[in-house]
């Protein structure tokens, strides 16, 4: 069974490679190597990895179990892993007693709009950079790449002043607009677009298709995998972003989930079950996304890193 | 010439004779139209604040008053400000501690998981899941774990018979290590996935050839895998250094820079000067000094690792 499992388990996307069928076959060729009988080494390998995985999952498990305890049990000494009485009281009190629902909505809304804008704006720019030759293109691309170097933290002070001037403090747009600037995503897309074949585009061009049609009906459909990767990666970073929403929102109604969580922590005092319940609520959406879109997430990370190759 | 045809819906005229050469060879201003929306965002929310901040750094501006021009005074003051040096020292110390750990652990985890094909999705989930958590969730969980007496960290040490009573976050000499531990748990999944992707792209033929030559597992690791991961390692180190230098969230949320000022990073100092003391001009100056430092480190890094690719073309 171990022989067949890998072939099924490793579709093309897992290798982070871009050509679906050849990529899949190539990694499929690793199968013979794994046909070896299970050796002592393999067992040791398995045990070490499993121990590390347990270590890695432990903080999450600890937080989850804490969230299911009655408040009185959370500070028991010596420490007890399992609650003697399982309860959802902490979840009920968090959902009923704070703005978690609103923050969840704010996070979903701002992360979704940011992602859509990043994908649209960055892919258009990447098309312009990769597939056309307007004068000044190289200079602008170089500037864009230099933008990757600017730590966002350096921008917070002047950016906040700008938001005050624009009246965007405590608004969705105040949270969204600065995050639309994603030079790294442009760079990733430029690299990908540059690798696409020219034939289709030339044929369309001869048929009189406009640049816009070529971009929208040829380049974009061809780029679905990388666009999915960019979307998911942008969504993850935006959803989890703390510093900027923390700076630009002071009104609890405008806060995103990660920021609201901190605002409410003080209110809970030392009620650990509730704090952990709120944390679990905030952690869940992306964990589900990861389980559903594991391949795209993995590819997203691979693209971020391997784009230079 | 082509400039005139920008507004036209059809590109037919300006493309003239598509028979010779590819369309992309010609000067074509429509491309600029595609880049414009991005440029608008780029200028409005990156270039402009960057320049405006540099302007502000030469003034005595507060949050609502523009202040007056003070030349380079803020920069001079910043260089003389012991708190700037403390926070800079903390940032560099964090970077120095976390970078090797995050690169090495990421590599080891990837090597292990790459070998274990069955259940790979589970290993990947285990090591990558923390990366998906918002920093505030990570901070809340680890402050809880690092609680004295009933926290999980002390509890686990007690379970194996130790009772060290470590002041994980309250002991000034320990706090930074606790934050580094937390950071490793939280973000190593990213490096792990980069390495895993790199491992999967190594052509299998190399290993088959080596196996025929009788190279054993360790030999293959040292002579094939690790050398072929060189470029990825360069990249991981660069990305990690830049990420570590930018540390703020977890420190601010776990220790608020304390105990005392044992863990305060530059960004938090900038934040406090700007948003608590409302000295926007001074805060800008400090952040520019920091930016200059990051830029120097990034450029040195690119010299060391990045240009190899360019010259290879």
Averaged pLDDT of chain A, please? 82
β-strand number of chain A: 0
Helix content of chain A: over 70%
Number of helices of chain B: 14
Overall structural class of chain A, as computed from helix and strand content, comes to: mainly alpha
Head-to-tail CA distance between termini of chain B: 34 Å
Sequence of secondary-structure elements of chain B = HHHHHHHHHHHHHH
Determine the strand fraction of chain A and express it as a percent band.
under 5%
Instruction: Characterize the overall form of chain A.
Output: globular
Which protein chains are joined by the largest interface, and how many residues does each one contribute?
Answer: A-B, 120 and 116 residues
| Total number of helices of chain A | 16
Name the helix and strand elements of chain A from N-terminus to C-terminus, one letter apiece.
HHHHHHHHHHHHHHHH
What would your notes on this structure say?
The complex is a heterodimer of chains A (309) and B (313). Chain A has helices spanning 4-9, 20-28, 40-67, 89-97, 100-131, 137-149, 152-166, 172-176, 183-194, 199-206, 211-222, 224-240, 243-248, 257-268, 272-292, 294-306. Chain A is mostly helical. Chain A is globular, with a radius of gyration of 24 Å. The two termini of chain A are 36 Å apart. Chain B is an all-alpha fold and 313 residues long. Residues 1-24 and 309-313 of chain B have low confidence and may be disordered. The chains are: A mainly alpha (309), B mainly alpha (313). At the A-B interface, helix 1, helix 3, helix 5, helix 6 and helix 7 of A face helix 2, helix 4, helix 5, helix 6 and helix 7 of B.
Task: Lay out the secondary structure.
The complex is a heterodimer of chains A (309) and B (313).
Chain A: H1 4-9, H2 20-28, H3 40-67, H4 89-97, H5 100-131, H6 137-149, H7 152-166, H8 172-176, H9 183-194, H10 199-206, H11 211-222, H12 224-240, H13 243-248, H14 257-268, H15 272-292, H16 294-306
Helix pairs in contact in A: 3-15, 4-15, 5-9, 5-12, 5-14, 6-9, 9-12, 10-11, 12-16, 14-15
Chain B: H1 12-15, H2 30-56, H3 73-80, H4 82-115, H5 120-128, H6 135-145, H7 152-159, H8 172-200, H9 204-212, H10 217-228, H11 230-245, H12 249-254, H13 266-276, H14 280-312
Helix pairs in contact in B: 2-14, 3-14, 4-8, 4-11, 4-13, 8-11, 11-14, 13-14
């Amino acid at each position: 069974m171990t022989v067949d499992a890998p072939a099924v388990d490793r579709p093309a996307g897992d290798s982070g490679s871009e050509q679906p069928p050849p990529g899949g076959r190539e990694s499929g060729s690793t199968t013979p190597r794994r046909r070896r009988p299970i050796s002592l080494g393999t067992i040791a390998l398995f045990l070490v990895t499993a121990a590390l995985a347990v270590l890695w999952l432990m903080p999450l498990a600890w937080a989850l179990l804490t969230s299911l305890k009655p408040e009185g049990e959370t500070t028991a000494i010596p420490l007890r892993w399992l609650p003697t009485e399982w309860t959802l009281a902490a979840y009920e009190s968090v959902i009923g007693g704070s703005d978690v629902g609103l923050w969840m909505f704010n996070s979903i809304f701002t992360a979704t709009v940011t992602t859509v804008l990043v994908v649209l704006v960055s892919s258009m720019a990447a098309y312009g950079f990769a597939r056309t030759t307007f004068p000044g293109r190289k200079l602008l691309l170089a500037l864009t790449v230099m933008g990757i170097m600017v730590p966002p933290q350096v921008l917070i002070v002047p950016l906040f002043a700008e938001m005050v001037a624009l009246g965007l403090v405590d608004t969705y747009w105040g949270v969204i607009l600065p995050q639309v600037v994603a030079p790294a995503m442009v760079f990733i897309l430029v690299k990908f677009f540059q690798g696409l074949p020219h034939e289709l585009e030339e044929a369309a061009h001869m048929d009189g298709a406009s640049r816009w049609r070529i971009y929208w009906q040829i380049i974009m459909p061809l780029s679905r995998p990388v666009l999915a990767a960019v979307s998911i990666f942008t969504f993850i970073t935006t959803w989890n972003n703390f510093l900027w929403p923390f700076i630009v929102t002071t009104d609890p109604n405008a806060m995103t989930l990660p920021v609201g969580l901190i605002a409410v922590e003080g209110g809970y005092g030392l009620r650990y079950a509730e704090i952990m319940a709120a944390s679990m609520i905030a952690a869940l959406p992306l964990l589900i996304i990861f389980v559903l879109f594991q391949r795209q997430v993995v590819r997203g990370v691979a693209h971020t890193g391997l784009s230079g190759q | 010439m082509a400039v005139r045809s920008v507004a036209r819906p059809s590109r037919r005229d300006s493309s003239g004779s598509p028979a010779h050469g590819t369309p992309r060879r010609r000067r074509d201003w429509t491309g600029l139209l595609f880049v414009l929306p991005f440029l608008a965002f780029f200028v409005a929310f990156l270039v402009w604040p960057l320049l405006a901040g540099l302007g502000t750094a030469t003034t005595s501006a507060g949050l609502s008053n523009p202040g007056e021009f003070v030349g380079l005074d803020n920069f001079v003051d910043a260089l003389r400000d012991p708190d700037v040096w403390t926070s800079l020292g903390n940032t560099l110390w964090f970077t120095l501690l976390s970078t090797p750990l995050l690169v090495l652990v990421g590599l080891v985890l990837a090597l292990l998981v790459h070998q274990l094909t069955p259940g790979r999705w589970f290993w990947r989930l285990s090591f990558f899941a923390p990366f998906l958590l918002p920093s505030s969730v990570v901070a809340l969980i680890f402050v809880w774990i690092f609680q004295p007496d009933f926290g999980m960290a002390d509890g686990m040490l007690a379970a194996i018979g130790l009772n060290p009573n470590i002041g994980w976050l309250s002991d000034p000499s320990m706090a930074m290590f606790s934050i580094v531990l937390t950071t490793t748990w939280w973000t190593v999944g990213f490096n792990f996935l980069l390495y895993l992707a790199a491992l999967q792209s190594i052509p299998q033929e190399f290993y088959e050839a080596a196996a025929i030559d009788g190279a054993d597992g360790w030999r293959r690791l040292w002579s094939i895998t690790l050398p072929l991961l060189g470029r990825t390692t360069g990249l991981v180190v660069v990305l990690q250094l830049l990420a570590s230098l930018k540390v703020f969230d977890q420190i601010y949320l776990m220790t608020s820079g304390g105990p005392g000022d044992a863990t305060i990073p530059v960004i938090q100092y900038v934040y406090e000067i700007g948003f608590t003391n409302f000295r926007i001009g001074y805060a800008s100056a400090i952040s520019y000094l920091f930016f200059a430092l990051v830029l120097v480190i990034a450029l040195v890094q690119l010299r060391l690792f990045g240009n190899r690719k360019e010259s290879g073309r």
